[in-house]
Amino acid sequence: MRRILANFALVQSLGFNTLRIFVNFHDFNKGNVPAEQLDKLRQLLNMAQKYDLKVIVTLFDFLGDYRLLNFPATDRQLETLLTAFREHSAILAWDLKNEPDLDYKHHDIADVQEWLHWILKRAKIYDPNHLLTIGWAYPENAELLSKELDFVSFHSYKLPEELARGIDGLQKKITTKPLVLEEFGLSTYRGFWTPLGKNEEEQAKYFTQVREVLRQKGNIPYIAWTLYDFTDVPAEVVGKMPWNRYPQKSFGVLNAAGKPKRGLKVLVK
Question: What is the tens place of the pLDDT at every residue in 196-214?
Answer without folding.
Answer: 899 999 999 999 999 999 9
